[in-house]
Structures are given as structure tokens and as C-alpha cells.
Amino acid sequence: MDGIELFDCKMFSMSPNEAKSMDPHQRLILEVGYEALYNMGQRKNTLVNSACGVYVGCGNVEWSMVPRDQDQGAFAATGGALSISSGRFSFTLGLKGPSMTIDTDASSGATSIYLGAEAVQRKGDAPLRTSFQLPLRPTCC
């Protein structure tokens, strides 16, 4: 994937080794999720300890099937696990709201949007809802 090495790991308080072992989906969630909040006028210092919830829809992740040369080391488990996506985003920004990664067959994105909207109606929290599908193998398309 072109430009994947351009991920700013310092922005999200992680080491280069941890960033190298991360699924590209997780990197995109961090970058695009923060960009969405930034465009809404939010900054890292204003988000810390906020009740912002994170709802991530994911599915059909191919990271485990992509051959990689480098040793994955200690970060392999968290770098490739789908369930880490929402929690990693919440943790790196210090968010205290709900954090859910949804993996349903063909409806993960819609489910994450529904759950985020439901949270706003229930509590008035400001959720971040996102979904991803990133084909990584040339045979998948």
C-alpha cells in the first residue's frame, strides 16, 4: 500500500515498531477519525476525558493474509485484532465514552451508525461513527 510508512505514530503516542505491526485499517481509523473530530473543532486537549463514544464497523479484514517481511514482535496481537480498533482510538485520545467494534455480516457500517445515533438520543454524547473496508490482496477485487 503506497504511503503507509507516512503514518504519524508520534501524533498517536506510539512507537514506530508498534505502528509497523498495525493493520492499515487501524491506522486509517486513527487518522481519519481524528481528522473528522478536528474538522468539527475538537482538539486532543479538549477530547481527553470527554464522553465521546466510538463505534467502528469492520469486516472482511485481510491483514492476516498479507505477506509481511518484518518480524511482527510483541505488537502482532493488538496490531491485527479487529476488536482493538475502537479501543485504540478511544485510548489514544483519552476518550471515556463507549467504545465498540462491530463485525456483522454485510452490515457492520450500518450497525455502527445505528448504535452511535441511538447513543446520542439516549445520552446526548457526541459519538464518532466510522466503518471500513480496505481490500489488501490483488485477488479480492
Automatic annotation (TrEMBL):
Gene3D superfamilies: 3.40.47.10. Keywords: Phosphopantetheine, Phosphoprotein. Pfam families: ketoacyl-synt. GO terms for molecular function: fatty acid synthase activity. Residues 1-141 form the Ketosynthase family 3 (KS3) domain. InterPro entries: Ketoacyl_synth_N (IPR014030), PKS_Beta-ketoAc_synthase_dom (IPR020841), PKS_NRPS_Biosynth_Enz (IPR050091), Thiolase-like (IPR016039). This is Ketosynthase family 3 (KS3) domain-containing protein. It comes from Effrenium voratum.
